[in-house]
Design goal:
Layout: E1 17-20, H1 25-41, E2 49-50, E3 53-54, H2 65-84, E4 94-105, E5 110-114, E6 121-128, E7 140-143, E8 163-166, E9 172-177, E10 182-184, E11 193-204
Length: 206
């Protein structure tokens, strides 16, 4: 007698999507210039950043063309992701509130583990990511939100791994659910690491 597999499902999966902006170079140069203007205007705020600068307010309210271009790309990214997860709601029937901020991490700067409560999607766009040959410098790491899994670790199965590290490149955009704990390894290079993070809150239009 042979056992027949009738169905295989992945329950309670956490989607993480990666995108890349082609010909990102001019956009990133303009974003870096805008970042220097913002840093001259404000000392920034203290959030998850450790040793780095975090811009104040909502970046996407700035009128600079590069910021508005990034806002359009982030919106496209969120629409694509919402469709890919099989959402039953038409994305065009939703209102989108998008807020963003810039992180500038000098040598030694990093972001401590945190989540982004109050939103559905969170994302990061990479403006300047110093190249390194070894180590974890500048990598973003996501932590498994399920806590009751120690007995599964011995299997070393991808579905039950405790952590997932990603080394992004300039022009990359990563999108993930806002509840997912994540942090960024210290910048071990002499160059500044610059990224733009954002939150997306979706509501049904009335």
């Amino acid at each position: 007698m042979k056992l027949e597999t009738t169905k295989y499902e992945k329950l309670f999966a956490t989607p993480v999507l990666r995108f890349h902006v082609p010909d990102y170079q001019d956009l990133n140069v303009a974003l870096l210039q805008e970042g220097e203007i913002m840093r001259a205007e404000s000392k920034g705020v203290s959030k998850s950043n450790r040793g780095g600068w975090h811009s104040a307010g909502n970046l996407f309210k700035r009128k600079a063309p590069c910021v508005q271009t990034l806002k359009e790309l982030a919106t496209e990214c969120i629409a694509t992701a919402t469709c890919k997860i099989g959402a039953k709601v038409d994305f065009d029937a939703l209102s989108l509130k998008l807020s963003g901020w810039m992180n500038m991490n000098p040598s030694g700067g990093y972001n401590a583990p945190h989540t982004h409560p109050g939103a559905q999607w969170s994302g990061v766009y990479y403006v300047s990511q110093p190249a390194v040959e070894t180590g974890h410098s500048g990598m973003i790491e996501f932590l498994d939100p399920r806590s009751d899994l120690p007995n599964w670790r011995i299997l070393d199965a991808p579905a039950f791994r405790l952590k997932k590290k990603i080394r992004p490149k300039p022009g990359d955009m990563i999108l993930f659910p806002s509840y997912l704990v994540h942090w960024v390894y210290p910048n071990d290079s002499d160059q500044e690491r610059v990224s733009i993070a954002f939150n997306a809150t979706l509501k049904v239009r009335r």
